[in-house]
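Let us practice reading a record.
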Amino acid sequence: MSLLDDKQEDLEKHEFMMGAARGKLAVSLDLLTDALVLAGQHGVYCRSNRNPAKPSTDIATVIEAINAAKQLISDSMAEIKRERDERG
């Protein structure tokens, strides 16, 4: 069973409420949030040798990339909503 199989109910719910594109993006955002939480938890245990108060460089890079992807998805969802609202 894949992760998308596990999220099928959420996907159907979000697609019904928001439309197909925004629903898929919303579930993608949820998956990225879950990944961000896991990376953050991992970062607690994998500390930088240079600065033990910070996560290791690879974990910090993954967290940055996930946050950037979440921002792009959020922006895309807002743009789709604006376009839909403008059409009436």
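A brief commentary: The mean pLDDT is 90.
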